From TrEMBL, chains A, B:
Annotated family: In the N-terminal section; belongs to the NAD(P)-dependent epimerase/dehydratase family.
Keyword annotations from UniProtKB, A to Z: Carbohydrate metabolism, Galactose metabolism, Isomerase, Multifunctional enzyme, NAD
One Pfam family of this chain: Aldose_epim
Reported cofactor(s): NAD(+)
Species classification: Eukaryota, Fungi, Dikarya, Ascomycota, Saccharomycotina
NCBIfam families in the record: galE, PRK10675.1
Known EC number: 5.1.3.2, 5.1.3.3
Limits of the NAD(P)-binding domain: 8-334
Originating species: Naumovozyma dairenensis (strain ATCC 10597 / BCRC 20456 / CBS 421 / NBRC 0211 / NRRL Y-12639)
Gene3D superfamilies hit by this protein: 2.70.98.10, NAD(P)-binding Rossmann-like Domain, UDP-galactose 4-epimerase, domain 1
Protein name (Swiss-Prot/TrEMBL): Bifunctional protein GAL10
A GO cellular component annotation in the UniProt record: cytosol
Top EC category: isomerase
Length: 693, 693
């Protein structure tokens, strides 16, 4: 296995940076992102993790912070740097020029100084066609070649030119060392076709496309077109628009170009990244209206100071040398932008979602995300184990959870709130056979293996999440886990998605599991291991007083090792009288039984996602007046009154209802089909917690 | 009295900065200097203090250090800023461009940010003709007007242009606030005619004149002339040389121009500062040989990369708008440079001189300077009181002194090592009459005023010093004090110079006092109050064992209040037997007598500087084998065995020999003439401590 090259992407949480990270990973590079998030959101990185199925180390560091940035160089073996980070609003730069110079120039200098110190000498710089200024002031400079004299007309452009000059001087000072690509962007537009990442400007957008998108989704009233009296096809100015995915690919092309240069040969060269084709404002307007199906209102107003007729790239140098050219036209860009805009009308900035950190420092990997934040029903979920950390009903917490990520990692874990996988519940003696091979899992529960044993998902950091607010009352958080076979006692590399959907109006939290394998089959059984306590406010140390009702009385009989005997039995205890619930006391009754949802079901299909949710357990506490209904697609469910609760909690401080496949199904011919996931299939399961109060 | 405008001068310890400070103070501005001293010396500031007769607050702060620089803005009411600070070696800038960009650009940004914060909005920037690059690439741009397109050809020039751009953008962002003068220097040469300040490049000089000066004084072998095949009068390139004093005056002109603009009107404008007259390399060479009287060896070598034929300023804009033009030609510049070079052949960087700080922080005002440092005879002197802090003979300290400046400021002072003034020794009842007016000093010694009473020089910070190494074995340190009448109980404003001259070969320390008054006469009597202990190594707590010999036995008789009775008496004690010295014991004999050097002298002249030094006292300690001879120009001397020593020292830990005018002379008609300094006269006195060991 060859070590992949690690690229430091500054500003990688931003618009162009995030799209470039996708292309880098698709091209076999590893990334590490540094971003101060002053004009971007960590959620773009969280989404990139799911989009690329890769963990992406992230540092919230300002490039001017030498020590903070040096830590990144110390912790990663950086091969090259793509430098996007910088303030970029032309108008703002004319108002606060010192801030622009300080941030953009110093940030770059500190970065280059650390590169020099750590012998990282490949650099791709995010410059801009702004460095040309008004190229129409020269004869024969449209389309604009790289040889066009430079002359920015605003502080933002001056910082770009200043950095270009620094790079040329740095190269000249050590010509056999530095490999520098200066990429002069024309007008990037569009979004990733996945709809997951796109441009998310804070405040009023400066650029045409984001502005139109905001008008189309109703955030702005109408589009202003600045002048229709230019000497163009329709009187509006001509610009060279380039799909952001094409632009991102230009970075890969330039990085590969630098990679291919001899080791002892330096270079510092500029390349235009543009399409070579100009579009007028009204042409782009038309393309966007067509893509969105919305006739956007617009108004022609006077020319804007500094605007010129035509700024189109001559991209021949990139075509010839980098073997790169644009492939996606304005209409595709408009289509992709519209997908992004409609699926994320408020970009990454969602009301009702907040995040804190499960670790002491701002370690973004250890993030706790709250969906429904500030509403009457909210769920907090950790990346670690895609764990339900907290669930609040009308402001009252109803589950057990910890404050810090590290508390979830104690060796005597009780799987508090965790996603359980690959295999929930017991496997007898930790043994199973699959495709003619015998497997032995580590024994971690009496004579059995329980909850996936070592390598259990509760202690793995999931990728993501993708956070969305698809309807007014609904919030979703989607996590992914790539559970490679080399990290597991189970066969096969598994890709798992855990999707939390919170409805603040109906007070329901749905948890959906889907999973796939690519090459080898694996046993699978997934559930959530939340411990509920419906009366934490008045009696947080015990579930006593909870009235619990289990819907079925059919249960799998188990022997003294808690291994199913193969028999189905009727549990002859009060709780199975559906006319009145069992009141849980301080000491008992103590349950740890696996029940059948429906004894007549044929529980052998792997994908139960489409199945109807069936109520399996209800619980109510009269003191808090909070009621819980647990439903599930799953054929069975474990009910556990927490009599062995540990790791900072008391016995019977919470109870668990764990819907899933039958206990030890992998070792029972009758049920085995329901827990073996083969390539080409999709595992599915869904659990719902519904509250009323 | 109008408050004078305070100008912050960054890089004020440097070549052009220091010359500008002189002109600022001559034009009625106050200055505060900030300099990181990375390429300059604090000694230029110390010399500026004496040259300008002003205290100049100094901060050793790097402009990139925001907090350090902010302190300056907090502690001073800054009116305007002249910004010289910056790295400036063209060749070095091509080797370490990041350092140049970081230092020059960031330093300027931090400065401007603080100016913005503290509403300081007048800025004069030290730019350079380097921003034009090769102006010969355009037709008709020689002489170079400000309108010439810019295009620096090296990182140094890029930083200057970068800062110009920042200034223009800053002005554009707040047009009614900023008043910015951008001064583009041509080739500054020469030095201040005083010979006290000049260019002091570290390492090999980059510029023609300092290089020639170093060849002339023997530090370099010969001059290299890069190319004599240009199309000029003599084949060598033409440059516009400008005397640094003219250049400094250009800053005053531009500052006054900014001062004269209406309050609510901004400006950002560039002015060339050049003579408009070009000189070839060989013309300057000839001028310097003529000025120095030395035919400097030179060699013609090939052209230097980047050099062009002619870079001469068009200075018309400055002439017209700033009413400024050069007044000093190349020959005057060469003459002044030669004076500087011969009087300071190693610039400010002298072997055998070191400095530490008498205060905890690096407060340059509280500096302790050691002359003869590292030699067999060395003296350490504080600015406070121009105090002799330490004197080492063959590595052994022979005087009492403190480690910290604050220790010299205890209320129960014993004047340890201090310069005593205005009036050493007692004035009966603190009373005297002068020009028909009666004066009453604060009584601080029994019924008398002693050693100048309150306002004594021992607690005043002197200006300077000027440190020199005029011959191989000689080091001098010259301090000045402007003792204004409003700070004194004495009449008249007094200007005092204290000059220490150390000869490491003869182990002599000469202390010379000179003083003048401008308007009103004053009583004056100055001495040094060092306590000697010739055996500190073995018996530092007592002078016991010292063999002391006082040369005269004529002494002034005093009454019970230690006031002279008017009689001269022979002191009938062993010490006055010149055949054998008196051995001092632990308890006695105790002396505190004023002796006559020569009873027949006529001690009524104010200026005794030219007088022969006469031996007054010898002292020897057999255990250390160190011998001291004290000589003086003065007519009398006090011998004191330290029986009331205080302030951290024991009685009889040191003895003092204090040459001076007669005790209470001001109140005795016979001697009064020797202690009244009138306008037009110069007071003079000299003391010598000579050691052998």
């Amino acid at each position: 296995m060859t070590t992949q090259k690690r690229v430091l992407v500054t500003g990688g949480a931003g618009y162009i940076g995030s799209h470039t990270v996708v292309e880098l990973i698709e091209n076999g590079y590893e990334c590490v992102i540094v971003d101060n998030l002053c004009n971007s959101s960590y959620d773009s990185v969280a989404r990139l993790e799911i989009l690329t199925k890769h963990h992406i180390p992230f540092y919230k560091v300002d490039l001017c912070d030498h020590d903070g940035l040096e830590k990144v160089f110390q912790e990663h073996n950086i091969d090259s740097v793509i430098h996007f980070a910088g303030l970029k609003a032309v108008g703002e730069s004319t108002q606060i020029p010192l801030t622009y110079y300080h941030n953009n120039i110093l940030g770059t200098l500190v970065l280059l100084e650390l590169m020099q110190k750590y012998h990282v000498e490949k650099f791709v710089f995010s410059s801009s066609a702004t460095v040309y200024g008004d190229a129409t002031r020269f004869p024969d400079m449209i389309p604009i070649p790289e040889e066009c004299p430079l002359g920015p007309t605003n502080p933002y452009g001056q910082t770009k030119l200043g950095i270009e000059n620094i790079l040329r001087d740095l190269y000249n000072s050590q010509k056999d060392i530095w490999k520098v690509a200066i990429l002069r962007y024309f007008n990037p537009i569009g979004a990733h076709p996945s709809g997951l990442i796109g441009e998310d400007p804070l405040g009023i957008p400066n650029n045409l496309l984001p502005y139109m998108a905001q008008v189309a989704v109703g955030r702005r009233e109408k589009l202003y077109v600045f002048g229709n009296d230019y000497d163009s096809r329709d009187g509006t100015p001509i610009r060279d628009y380039i799909h952001v995915v094409d632009l991102a690919k230009g970075h890969i092309a330039s990085l590969k170009y630098l990679d291919a240069i001899d080791q002892k040969t330096g270079i510092c060269r500029e390349w235009n990244l543009g399409s070579g084709t100009g579009s007028t404002v009204l042409e782009v307007y038309r393309a966007f209206c067509d893509a969105s199906g919305i006739e956007i209102p617009y108004e022609i107003t006077g020319r804007r100071a500094g605007d010129v007729l035509n700024l189109t790239a001559k991209p021949d140098r990139a075509t010839k040398e980098l073997k790169w050219k644009t492939e996606l036209d304005v209409s595709i860009a408009c289509k992709d932008l519209w997908k992004w805009a409609t699926e994320n009308p408020f970009g990454y900035q969602l009301n009702g979602i907040s995040a804190t950190f499960g670790t002491d420092e701002e370690e973004f990997d250890g993030r706790f995300v709250t969906i429904g934040s500030g509403s009457r029903f909210q769920a907090t979920i950790a990346n670690l184990g895609a764990t339900l950390v907290d669930l609040k009903v009308d402001g009252q917490s109803v589950v057990l959870g910890y404050e810090k990520e590290s508390q979830y990692l104690t060796p005597d874990t009780c799987y508090i709130g965790a996603t359980i996988g690959r295999y929930a519940n017991r496997i007898a003696h930790g043994k199973f056979a699959l495709n003619g091979k015998d497997y032995q899992l580590t024994i971690n529960n009496g004579v059995n293996a329980n909850h996936g044993s070592i390598g259990s998902f509760h202690a793995k950091r999931f990728l993501g999440p993708i956070l969305k607010n698809p309807t007014k009352d609904t919030f979703t958080a989607e996590y992914a886990l790539i559970d490679n076979s080399e990290d597991s006692e189970f066969p096969g590399s598994l890709q798992v998605i855990v999707n939390y959907t919170l409805n603040v109006a109906t007070k329901t939290l749905d948890i959906e599991y889907t999973a796939q394998v690519e090459v080898e089959a694996t046993p699978i059984n997934m559930t959530n291991h939340t411990y509920f306590n419906l009366n934490k406010l008045y009696g947080s140390d015990s579930i006593a007083g909870t009235e619990i009702k289990v819907i079925s009385n059919k249960s799998i009989d188990v022997d003294e090792n808690v291994i199913p005997t193969g028999k189905i039995v009727d549990r002859e205890i009060a709780t199975f009288d559906d006319s009145k619930p069992t009141v849980l006391g301080k000491e008992g009754p103590d349950y740890d039984y696996n029940f059948f949802v429906d004894a007549t079901a044929t529980p052998n299909q792997i994908d139960t996602r489409g199945n109807e949710l069936k109520l399996v357990t209800t619980a109510y506490h009269p003191e808090s007046n909070i009621k819980l209904e647990v439903s599930s697609t799953e054929p069975s469910y474990q009910v556990y009154t927490g009599d062995w609760l540990c790791a900072g909690f008391h016995p019977r401080q919470g109870f668990a209802v764990e819907p899933g496949r039958y206990v030890n199904a992998i070792n029972q011919d009758k049920y085995k089909g329901s827990v073996i996931l083969k390539p080409g299939e999709t595992f599915g399961a869904k659990i719902q917690y519904k509250f009323s109060a």
